[in-house]
Amino acid sequence: MSMGFDKETFKKSVLFNMKNVFRKTVDEATPEQMYQAVAYAVKDVIIDEWIATHKEYEKQDVKTLYYLSMEFLMGRALGNNIISIMAQPEVKEILEELGFDLNVIEDQEPDPALGNGGLGRLAACFLDSLATLGYPAYGCGIRYRYGMFKQKIEGGYQLEVPDDWLKNGYPFELRRAEYATEVKFGGYVNTVWENGKERFVQEGYQSVLAVPYDMPIVGYGNNVVNTLRIWDAQAINTFSLDSFDRGDYQKAVEQENLAKTIVEVLYPNDNHYAGKELRLKQQYFFISASVQRAVMKYMEKHDDIHKFYEKTVFQLNDTHPTVAVPELMRILLDDYGLSWDEAWEITTKTCAYTNHTIMSEALEKWPIELFSRLLPRIYQIVEEINRRFQQKITEMYPGNQDKLRKMSIVYDGQVRMANLAILGGFSVNGVARLHTEILKNQELKDFYQMMPEKFNNKTNGITQRRFLLHGNPLLAQWVTKKIGSDWITNLPHIHRLAIYAEDPRCRQEFMDIKYQNKVRLADYVKEHNGIELDPRSMFDVQVKRLHEYKRQLMNILHVMYLYNQLKDNPNLDMVPRTFLFGAKAAAGYKRAKLTIKLINAVADVINNDRSIGGKIKVVFIEDYKVSNAEIIFAAADVSEQISTASKEASGTGNMKFMLNGALTLGTMDGANVEIVEEVGAENAFIFGMSSDEVIRYENEGGYNPMEIFNNNFEIRRVLMQLINGYYSPQDPELFRDIYNSLLNTKSSDRADTYFILRDLPSYAEAQRRVDQAYRDEAWWAKAAILNVASSGKFTSDRTIEEYVKDIWHLEKVKVELEEEA
Ligand code: GLS
After folding, report:
1. pTM passes above 0.80
2. Rounded distance, CA 687 to CA 684, Å?
3. How would you class 261 by CB atoms within 10 Å of its CB: exposed for 0-12, middle for 13-18, buried for 19 or more?
4. Phi and psi, residue 807, nearest 5°
């Protein structure tokens, strides 16, 4: 239990909050009100640790990490925070005394969904690990008014519903008006001469006030509380008569609107860049505020700006925060009067960049026209960075136009953010070993050749505290009973479980827990989607964002194939299987949305066909998000990680499944490679083309799926069912686009860009191995336990230690709480 926690005080605090906030006694309270009252009481405990942590940081004058990210997919805080202050049994008891169930209370909290998928969730796992390991860090992001949309499925189609997560207020956040910062957009740059020196001043601009809200990030049992700082926007001069009189009426209204729209909504694209002006505004908004604040904070304690990098490091979570590079330059040049070389040295020693994808449609390239209009001074600086860099390229590779074309930062009317991020920092990292190798040898080859010392790998990780301790309490207790609780802060210790994989009784215990978790998921799906699941069937799960490269389509095509087999032979000997899907599609991503419809259409036919005796069931779980993910991972038998090799930079869901004892069915892509290395190929089901093969085909212009169509009757039959109304009798043409995408015909893209038909036979074969293996329960239990036991490498604690050692160079801080008098 945390030092700051006292059961009686806590209970009083809950009652006090109930009275003060809601003017109610506990017996009149709704669960939602109870949630708020408890959350405020928990915050009360946290606050003391939060203050103590920051006092300690100040005292030790620590180096601080700023993790700059457009996304933080935090998930619910209450349950996690209660676990982190190590007060779960006590809080549970108190609530029971008051007539409430902690699970129900936790369920009242909206999921703060300020992220899309893996990239945002990684940021959240990193914050958890940083606090638990005791490293001084801020997460810096945007307080979107609407986070990731809520997904409803109607008639098999995805509907997007706004996520009004702040509707009832958010108990854990703290508004810090004293740190409000002005951010300027547009206008023009004026040159003034001061003391014989040129100075650049932005004039005629519009500005907004960035107001930070802080959320506590509570370390596990160590009194450390870090901060996630998300910025809200406010108009600087709210519309006033004063400005009206001055003829500035229009400007006042514009500023008001600008502030409102900037933080209005998170763009729901994952691995995809849409090029919207508002998105660039969002980027500069939170970056300018964060960087200004970081510089101010540094200068409060130090007098020499030249040593800024000794106390500060900025990690750029993908290219989205790259304007940090020219923004820091601007502050150093214009506000501190440094020379270009001085400013450049400080900047490049402060910034580091993580690449999260090789998908070309994710590459951020801003048209010069837009960029320079919105950020005139920043653009000037980018141009100068580019001019100097081009000079360097020309010196190194005289006459080599190809190098200039590929590496320039400003080229062809566009500002290329990845190139700027690579040049503007001292480190470039990929997120899994294979991904980093592809960056070095393919995508970023020219940069790697020029500056190899910057490149390094940091294989992603996940926090076991959320995804096992909180998400799967039955398994967590079982693990602790067997090997003690070290794994909570030292996941590699979980390897001690391996010996229990040999023990028949332990195998049985493990399978019983899996069964109970399947019942829990079945209850969830029944309650939320009204669909019945059979927990005795094998749960085969693919949950992640919907994207063509992730190949949910291959999964459902295989289900269609299996169903055909079953129709041909109703006595087919197979283990009853439930295929579970969960995925949000970007609102404008038509083919992804059609794939959701296809999954639901197939589900409709198969689930209503009594002739197959319930051997296959297909379920699309609505609104996949962090809170139900915790329930889903715990219940999975099979983890579908079937991306086209080379396309999934890392994946992190794969690690969460493994930690919960699901077996991976996957390609040799992203972190799957390392997962298989840890657990052994014999305890996973691997299939499909290698990344080398994929890349070779791509360089040669693709392959011809028509050959497969012509020669493979089973595949042809499945494809024909896409266009003969088998799954859409009302509209046989409904899935034509999907059919076309696989076989080309009219579309301008290459046919079957993601090698779905090419990998389908080997996928089906791997699925047969899964079926066979599951029949041997003893073997399966053993392999599942070995997966849990081999997951040690994939804790984000390990990832963070690697970032600290190779990139950030932070010192661990210990926080002691003073006993209250
Ligand atoms: C992503 C990648 O697609 C994932 O493979 C990766 O695990 C994640 C975190 O590094 O980043 N990149 C992206 O744009 N969205 C992601 O989830």
Report:
1. yes
2. 10
3. middle
4. -125, -50
Which residue is closest in CA terms to ligand 1's atom 17?
118
CA-to-CA distance for 43 and 36, rounded, in angstroms?
A: 10
> Helices 756-775 and 713-723: crossing angle, nearest 10°?
110
- The DSSP string of 712-758 is -HHHHHHHHHHHSSSS-TT-TTTTHHHHHHHH-TT-SSPTTTT-HHH
**Residues 553 and 756 sit within 8 Å (Cβ to Cβ):** yes
Q: Mind listing the domains of the chain with CATH numbers?
A: 61-76+111-358+427-460 (3.40.50.2000), 466-689+756-794 (3.40.50.2000)
In order of 306, 317, 341, 393, the CA distances from 345 in angstroms are 9, 21, 6, 19
Please indicate whether residue 43 is annotated as part of the active site: no
Q: Chain centroid to CA 581: how far?
A: 18
Mutate to test the pocket of ligand 1, among 650, 658, 675 (most ligand atoms within 8 A of CB): 650
Mutational pocket test of ligand 1: of 148, 356, 669, the residue with most ligand atoms within 8 Å of the beta carbon? 356
Residues of 751-777 as b/e, b for ≥16 C-beta within 10 angstroms?
bbbbbbbbbbbebbebbeebbebbeee
Check if the beta carbon of residue 432 is closer than 8 Å to that of residue 649. yes
Distance CA 92, CA 100 (A): 9
Residue that the structure tokens 């910062």 belong to: 181
Q: Is 80 in the pocket of ligand 1 (CB under 6 A)?
A: no
**Residue 195 confidence (pLDDT) above 90:** no
597 among known catalytic residues: no
Pick the catalytic residue: 403, 550, 577, 584? 550
Q: Is the CB of 322 under 6 A from ligand 1?
A: no
Q: What is the pLDDT of residues 673-693, one digit of tens each?
A: 999 999 999 999 999 999 999
Q: Which of 184, 544, 547, 615 is catalytic?
A: 544
Instruction: Please indicate whether residue 431, judged by its CB atom, sits closer than 6 Å to ligand 1.
Output: yes
Above pLDDT 90, what percent of the chain?
94
* Residues 6 or more apart whose Cβ sits within 8 Å of residue 436: 429, 430, 455, 456, 457
Please count the other Cβ atoms lying within 10 Å of the Cβ belonging to residue 193: 8
pLDDT, position 209: 98
Q: Which of 229, 435, 454, 545 is catalytic?
A: 545
Which residue in 115, 161, 146 sits closest to 264, CA to CA?
146
Cβ atoms of 450 and 396 within 8 Å: the answer is yes
Residue among 330, 356, 466, 584 flagged as catalytic: 356
The mean pLDDT value for 420-429 works out to 98
Residue 460 CA: nearest ligand 1 atom is 10
pLDDT over threshold 80, residue 252: no
For 154, the enclosing helix (H) or strand (E) is: strand 150-154
Distance CA 501, CA 101 (A): 34
Joined tokens for residue 445: 């080859």
- The candidate with the shortest Cα–Cα distance to 139, out of 121, 155, 154, is 121
| 545 given a catalytic annotation | yes
Which of 379, 258, 259 lies closest to 323, judged by CA?
A: 379
Q: Distance of CA 427 to CAs 62, 259, 313, 454, Å?
A: 21, 34, 11, 4
Regarding the beta carbon of 69 and ligand 1, being less than 6 Å apart is answered: no
